[in-house]
User: Which sequence fits this backbone?
């Protein structure tokens, strides 16, 4: 397993991430302009969605897909409950912030999934295309759970006629639309459509991921250096919760009899925390929560942990549990 | 040249809340405002710079010029939200030329 971790750390995506981290720590003025970072995020979402859709077009809609999707949605709804309990009892966080942070951990990080996919290839695993759809489905249920949890402490912004508005905003947020849309188009146009898109969304994919991770490293490290909201317990939570999530994912996936790559992918999804879609949604719906807290945790603690140590660990756990 | 006195209200808000604020302005019948991007800054909550991967931390500035009564109603509407929404609000008096526009 140490071999796997070493191999992961030596891959271009992770090395670029580390470059960003080191540059930030060294107080370099290197910055990637924000519109470019956003453009790269859009590119990565369209590319991964399209590829996933194309693979489902080839493989067909299987029972596996339905099972994984159902599991994913259920996990996205329930993981925030565990996170919330931990945050309240062990970290002693107040109700609103606990609910806000919990929503992040039930949701997923697209970039973590994409990075994991690259890492998996190095470890001899190929994630089935339908897991992209599972990923998209897992993005929003956690937000709803977070809002329900927060409702016990204060009225979230969704009151009265506002409510349907909030649900619409949350369910139709940009990354879900992009991911599902690209997935649908990939599924409809299949390998033929993919062939026409491939020069843009297949060939440069890994390099764009590297540039994006460079930016992520810069941003994550800067945020961590700047942060005055984290204490030891929160940082521990930021590393322990992904592990707990992954164990749940492995347990459910293995019990459902999914193939090993899907189980491992599900583990990664359960371990990841959103830092693009959910923070924006939570800022809108739970403005009383502190964005410095949830953004820093998921971006500067959990994300780096996941892509360096987490993913190889989750693969090892999956292999140990499934005997694969 | 005759000028008219109006109130300028400036609001610094988190980008994800910008649409909600615009809706509140529309609901109050305030038709004249512009929204600008903030590059960075510092406040009680920490500092931010325009190099984030997500919009969640970005700030925008609303510049609103309107009549005194509408400005008063706006302040009344937003006062209870200042803490929760993390808003910075200040008002100044300005002179405009085309009084009927504001």
Assistant:
């Amino acid at each position: 397993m140490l071999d796997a971790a070493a191999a992961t750390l030596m891959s271009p995506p992770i090395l670029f991430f580390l470059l960003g981290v080191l540059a930030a720590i060294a107080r370099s003025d290197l910055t990637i302009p924000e519109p470019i970072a956003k453009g790269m995020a859009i590119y990565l979402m369209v590319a991964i969605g399209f590829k996933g859709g194309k693979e489902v077009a080839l493989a067909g809609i299987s029972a596996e897909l339905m099972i994984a999707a159902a599991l994913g949605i259920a996990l996205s709804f329930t993981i925030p409950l565990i996170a919330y309990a931990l945050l309240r009892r062990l970290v002693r966080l107040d109700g609103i912030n606990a609910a806000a942070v919990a929503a992040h951990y039930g949701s997923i990080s697209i970039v973590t999934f994409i990075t994991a996919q690259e890492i998996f290839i190095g470890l001899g695993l190929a994630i089935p295309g339908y897991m992209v759809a599972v990923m998209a489905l897992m993005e929003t249920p956690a937000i709803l759970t977070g809002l329900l949890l927060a409702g016990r402490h204060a009225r979230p912004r969704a009151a009265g006629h506002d409510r349907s508005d909030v649900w619409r905003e949350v369910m139709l947020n940009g990354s879900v639309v992009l991911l599902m849309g690209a997935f649908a188009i990939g599924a409809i146009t299949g390998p033929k459509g993919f062939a026409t898109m491939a020069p843009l969304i297949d060939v440069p994919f890994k390099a764009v991921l590297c540039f994006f991770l460079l930016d992520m490293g810069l941003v994550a490290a800067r945020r961590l250096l700047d942060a005055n909201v984290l204490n030891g317990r929160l940082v521990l939570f930021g590393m322990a919760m992904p592990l707990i999530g992954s164990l749940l994912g492995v347990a459910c996936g293995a019990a459902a009899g999914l193939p090993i790559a899907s189980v491992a992918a599900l583990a990664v999804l359960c371990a990841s925390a959103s830092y693009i879609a959910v923070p924006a949604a939570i800022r809108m719906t739970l403005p009383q929560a502190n964005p410095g807290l949830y953004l820093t945790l998921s971006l500067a603690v959990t994300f780096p942990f996941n892509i360096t140590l987490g993913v190889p660990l989750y693969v090892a756990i999956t292999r140990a549990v499934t005997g694969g | 040249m005759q000028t008219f006195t109006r109130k300028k209200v400036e609001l610094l808000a988190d980008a994800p809340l910008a649409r909600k604020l615009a809706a509140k302005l529309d609901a109050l019948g305030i038709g004249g405002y512009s929204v600008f991007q903030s590059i960075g800054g510092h406040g009680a909550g920490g500092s931010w710079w325009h190099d984030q991967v997500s919009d969640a931390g970005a700030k925008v500035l609303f510049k609103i010029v309107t009549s005194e009564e509408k400005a008063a109603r706006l302040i009344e509407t937003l006062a209870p939200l200042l803490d929760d929404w993390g808003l910075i609000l200040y008002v100044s008096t300005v002179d405009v030329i085309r009084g009927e526009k504001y």
About this structure: The first helix of chain A runs from residue 2 to 9. Chain A is about 80% helix and 0% strand.
